């Protein structure tokens, strides 16, 4: 039996959301997205700073790394690619750089980081997705589903475990893709940027599925695993999709047949600055319902082949939390696990686990808290910086308990508070480390946050961090959601008590907070519950139209440039001087 490597670095890049992850022994000790360091949203190139962070955090020298696992396998299903190109010659396009240059570029990156001694191993995109949720729960052997737009010619995979390994049972391949369908409708609704799909999900709650028949025309279930796109509406063979990297960010041009779609739906695409009309809300709802139908179809096909009580989800489509929250009601699965970084950042973790050959647990016990932790010296340096020395004052609390009680009092008084504490989140959700907190009982707080702090569309809802012990008293059919991955209906007798987090359809996305893995955050919410009877807080990501803050400096800049009231840094609380509110560039 071959010796299993002890130190494995996983890397994901080239498609957006570049990231790195590090396994040492039987622990996942660090994982982070490159965008958090360089402040470029959805950064697509090699994650140099994320790699450096992982190694520095673990005190690992580059030459100690035995395997660099790359979540990309360009020759995957090569025979199917050749067959498709022969049948559709228009798919042939000259790559920007030959494969030899790409290999040389990777070798150059690894050499510059001192990793040239490590063995480079590659793993298929969707297999890496599946492995990213391999050990979320070691008490069960789940059935696995991964689905997104496309990666290594595959848009979805299902699998099961055999020992440590995951065996892929079936795949859905190009051009058919649930992710393509949802992305196309996202663009049609006037949200053009990479990653805007969550806006359609939020908007869908305001509509009715009046265009569901038309959506079923665009994508159809297959009798067996998978689905089929209407290739007249999405002419991907006649007019190849244009996906490229521009200024380090992924770009995807509209790929639908404009005439076909306009005639089918009955109105033209919405432009980004156009008002959102009821027809747009109805189209969003129709796209969401159709997505859910296809997602449930894939799960039923999976259950027929792997009749486990638990399903593990990954891939960008698994971040559709409205669908996820209904899985236990609409399928035979009774337990749902979702990779904290289901999008392409997560495949760095999956690639590393794939080559570990043993069970892996997260350092600190929480799969979603693997990023940098603020250091005292850098925090003090940031606090003393000339940029904000004249703009802020601070309070320091002797104990964590005194800080917690003060924060609860200020939240009850309607204050908006930035929390910068502990290890940064890995994945798109703020989980109480890089969060903005507020009182969910305040009916004006949603609009206040959207206008004063987040500067985003008014239709987008806010999530709640909930003490796990009480979530079943407030939400129907709620299951454990440590990384805020599911939306549930608020119980009828509770919705008027928490208006700031109840969406227009009486739903709320939640994070289940446990005392074991997040003691400070749990105590904060529990103290709020004791004072108010409400076991939750509004929790939104600590950012303003940028990646979630990473460093103390990022947090202070965001605090000063928005209308937050306080910023918590360890046992310090920063607030702005009334006579010094200048903006920081």
Task: Jot down its keywords.
single chain, 585 residues, alpha/beta, Nucleotidyltransferase, domain 5, DHBP synthase, 3 domains, nine-stranded mixed sheet, disordered C terminus
Secondary structure elements and pairings:
Blueprint: E1 7-12, E2 19-24, E3 27-33, H1 35-38, H2 48-58, E4 67-70, H3 78-87, H4 99-112, E5 119-122, H5 125-131, E6 143-151, E7 154-162, E8 165-173, H6 178-188, H7 197-204, H8 212-218, E9 219-221, E10 227-229, E11 243-246, E12 249-252, H9 258-265, H10 278-305, E13 310-314, H11 321-324, H12 327-330, E14 335-338, H13 347-354, E15 361-362, H14 376-383, E16 392-396, H15 400-412, E17 417-420, E18 434-438, H16 445-454, E19 463-467, H17 471-474, E20 486-489, E21 507-513, H18 519-532, E22 536-541, H19 552-561, E23 566-569, E24 572-576
Parallel strand pairs: 1-4, 3-15, 4-5, 6-13, 13-14, 17-23, 19-21
Antiparallel strand pairs: 1-2, 2-3, 6-7, 7-8, 9-10, 11-12, 16-24, 17-18, 18-22, 19-22, 20-21, 23-24
Helix pairs in contact: 5-13, 6-10, 7-10, 8-10, 15-18
């Amino acid at each position: 039996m071959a010796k299993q490597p002890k130190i494995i670095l996983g890397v994901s890049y080239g498609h957006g959301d570049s990231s790195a992850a590090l396994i040492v022994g039987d622990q996942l000790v660090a994982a982070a997205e490159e965008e958090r360091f360089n402040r470029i949203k959805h950064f697509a190139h090699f994650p140099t700073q994320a790699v450096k962070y992982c190694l520095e955090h673990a005190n690992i020298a580059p030459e100690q790394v035995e395997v660099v696992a790359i979540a990309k396998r360009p020759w995957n299903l090569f025979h199917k690619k050749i067959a498709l190109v022969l049948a559709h010659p228009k798919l042939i396009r000259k790559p920007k750089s030959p494969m030899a240059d790409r290999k040389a570029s990777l070798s150059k990156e690894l050499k510059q980081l001192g990793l040239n001694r490590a063995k480079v191993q590659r793993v298929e995109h969707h297999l890496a997705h599946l492995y990213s949720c391999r050990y979320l729960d070691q008490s069960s052997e789940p059935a696995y589903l991964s689905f997104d737009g496309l990666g290594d010619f595959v848009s979805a995979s299902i699998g099961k475990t055999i020992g440590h390994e995951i065996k892929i049972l079936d795949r859905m391949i190009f051009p058919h893709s649930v992710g393509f369908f949802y992305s196309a409708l996202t663009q049609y609704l006037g949200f053009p940027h990479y990653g805007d799909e969550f806006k359609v999900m939020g908007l869908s709650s305001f509509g009715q599925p009046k265009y569901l028949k038309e959506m079923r025309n665009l994508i159809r279930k297959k009798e067996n695993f998978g689905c089929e796109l209407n290739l007249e509406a999405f002419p991907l063979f006649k007019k190849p999709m244009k996906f490229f990297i521009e200024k380090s960010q992924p770009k995807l041009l509209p790929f639908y047949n404009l005439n076909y779609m306009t005639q089918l739906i009955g109105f033209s695409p919405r432009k980004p600055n156009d008002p959102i009309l009821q027809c747009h809300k109805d189209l969003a709802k129709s796209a969401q319902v159709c997505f859910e139908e296809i997602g449930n179809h894939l799960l039923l096909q999976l259950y027929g082949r792997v009749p486990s009580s638990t399903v593990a989800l990954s891939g960008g489509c698994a971040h559709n939390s409205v669908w996820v929250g209904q899985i236990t009601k609409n399928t035979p699965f009774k337990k749902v696990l979702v990779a904290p970084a289901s999008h392409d950042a997560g495949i760095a973790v999956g690639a590393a686990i794939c080559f570990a050959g043993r069970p892996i647990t997260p350092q600190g016990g929480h799969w979603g808290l693997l990023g940098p932790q603020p250091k005292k010296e850098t925090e003090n340096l940031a606090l003393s910086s000339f940029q904000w020395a004249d703009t802020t004052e601070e309070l320091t609390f002797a104990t964590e308990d005194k800080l917690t009680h003060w924060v609860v009092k200020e939240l009850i008084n309607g204050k908006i508070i930035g929390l910068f504490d502990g290890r940064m989140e890995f994945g798109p959700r703020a989980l109480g480390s890089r969060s903005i907190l507020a009182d969910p009982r305040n009916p004006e707080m949603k609009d206040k946050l959207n206008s004063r702090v987040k500067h985003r569309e008014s239709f987008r809802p806010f999530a709640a961090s909930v003490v796990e012990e009480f979530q079943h008293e407030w939400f129907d059919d709620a299951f454990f959601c440590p990384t805020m991955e599911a939306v549930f209906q608020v119980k009828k007798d509770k919705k008027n008590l928490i208006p700031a987090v109840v969406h227009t359809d009486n739903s709320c996305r939640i994070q289940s907070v446990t005392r074991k893995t997040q003691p400070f955050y749990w105590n904060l919410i529990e103290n709020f519950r004791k004072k108010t009877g409400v076991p939750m807080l509004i929790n939104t990501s600590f950012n303003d139209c940028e990646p979630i803050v990473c460093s103390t400096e990022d947090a202070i800049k965001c605090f000063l440039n928005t209308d937050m009231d306080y910023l918590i840094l360890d046992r310090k609380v920063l607030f702005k001087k009334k006579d010094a509110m200048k903006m920081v560039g």
